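Blinded run. Sample ID left blank on purpose so nobody reads anything into the name before looking at the predicted structure. Input follows.
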Amino acid sequence: MGKIVPLGETLVEVMADNKRYGILEPMSFTGPFPSSAPPIFISQAARMGAETTYVFLRGR
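Blinded prediction complete.
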């Protein structure tokens, strides 16, 4: 199998460690976790042993 190289947007998700409070006070978060189709796809392919690279553009 060849190397998998998707191109696309990249998003990440973070989750609050304590669900009782809003975001108005400092709190700790867990993450980042891949989100949106290309990052989720490439992370799962890598976990299955595929050789992977991910290409994306980032704003300023």
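Unblinding after everyone has recorded impressions. Residues 37-47 form the longest helix (11 residues).
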